[in-house]
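Q: What would this complex look like in 3D?
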Amino acid sequence: MDAIDALIVRSEADLRWLDLYEGATDDKEKRPMNPVLELHDVSRPNDDVSADPLARDGLAVQTRALGKRFGTRAALHNVDLDVPRGCAFGFLGPNGAGKTTLIRLLLGLAEPTSGRIRLLGHDLRGGAAVALARVGAIIEEPRFHPHLSGRENLLVHAAAREPAAYGRIDGALARVGLAARADERVKAYSLGMRQRLGIARCLLADPKLLILDEPMNGLDPAGIGELRELIAALVAEGRTVLLSSHLLDEVERTCDAAAIVDDGKVIAQGKIGDLTGGGPRAIDITCDDRVRAASLLAAVPGIARATDRDGDLRLELRPEAPADNEIVTELLRRLLDNGIAIERVSPVAVSLEQLFLTMTTRLEDRA
Amino acid sequence: MFDLRLIRADALKLRRRRGMLALCVVLTLGVVALIFTAAGIQHATDPSQRLPAGGLMAYRDAMFVLTMMMLVAGAIVGATAGAQDLESGVFRDLAATGRSRLALFGARVPGAWTIVLPIAVLASTAAAVASLALAAGLPAPDAGTIFAATAGVLAAGALSATVAVGLAALTGSKAAVIATMLAFTLAIAPLLSNIGFLGDARQAIPTNALARIGDPSNPNLQMGLITAIVVVVAWAAAAFAAGAWRTRSREI
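A: Here is my prediction, written as structure tokens for the whole assembly.
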């Protein structure tokens, strides 16, 4: 990349950061996040990784046309994933959707059948040592040698890292709150302690990217809260956290962006707000004559269905329906014109969980 | 392929297995102590019928048994070294560092040797000291004999550990490797050695090669020293290569 290219890329990134700041309403949104978080059409042509200027310094993870087959079964199919640097990125999918397979491919633990992977700007093919040098990972559950102490397990792991990793052991143990019990054998650790030791092991790499596969499994609410805070702190330091989890509300609370994978394909990815904003829309209305209101409003263009929901009238909107404020104006006008008293009108916020359930298929459905 | 930091890490993993270490010491040093103690008690209780516990013949017998025991101890340590990362699930995390899998595998063999070889030296030294101290007028082993026998015991430990590391990486199972190597050492190899029509092919049996290294004067072995060394190295290289290939190609 020459100097002018670098300047252009930097400027585009800065502009996008400004966009993010402008819409920020809380700390999580104010976090400077890198770009390419728009919901993208997953059917778009597969770009050549090396041709994308952001591949060089803008993305923590980038895959193109990534595929993995086990015999005749395609576990992953044409996966294009873009994980921006410096954010917490959720990776969601039902059991058997291909989440762990993708993580194994990202970490070089299995060979892709097709496609390319870049981690922190480095092509994994032929350069795994460089690409993974600044990547820490917990895959499924953290595993250790149970007969060794926590500190000895980190010593063993540090031997596989750069020599400087030895010097990070004490700091990593202190950071996850295990310094006092570091010399006890791991077989005496609780699951929560092992999860924390797993995070400490990740930190030995001084990671720019952490890949955490179901890190909240088995943690109690306090443990989940501590982990959430730790992830937020790591992201605040400029690290990227790729978090695979079944706990959708946790992903929604912890992550800036997410990808949803189903049946081996990434079916959506982008900022959490954009994802949920792109999901099914509805409006709840509380009024004095629900039956008459339903018959009146069902005919309004953009309304797909009117149903009763806990005493309210729920209007489900078609995808092509006008913006919420426009359609609410039209609904109010019709109700008032017909003498129906309105107590409350509220657009329904779609949670990540609702979106997830809408977009993904369950294994039994697939079968 | 052989990284000192990884070797130290593998040695640490093995050193902390107190039960395994204790078993290996009992199987080697303990057996040597038992042999000379039992012979010493027998000689003390019936000096006219029982020879002194030491001397050249007692030394050769003890070193033969010790060579067999080192094959067993080497199998236990090597299989543990080869399979412990896989069985504990840690290998996946080590491979995810981007470190060469061959380097991770390659460290296991010298890691196992750091446990096996000191035990072999200790037990061999104990046997030599006991046979000299308890000779009581019988011909004692000379330096050449002691050197050859010690080399045979060391070779047995090193070969057994290397083969076990390779097979454990190949199968991913410590127990299966130990069982197979015990069966081969204690039953299959002696059986094959006694099948006459196999002729010179029997020189490829590793226990015969080890016996040749440890006891050059054995009239039952017509094998040259170089041939014996080649046989030992070939078995070790084959197992090492198989383990390295599986470690590199394994999807985890």
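A: To summarize the key features: The interface with chain B takes residues 104, 107-111, 128-133, 135, 137, 139, 142-148, 152-153, 155-157, 159-161, 163, 201, 205 of chain A (CB under 8 Å). Chain A has 15 helices and 14 strands.
Q: Very helpful, thank you.
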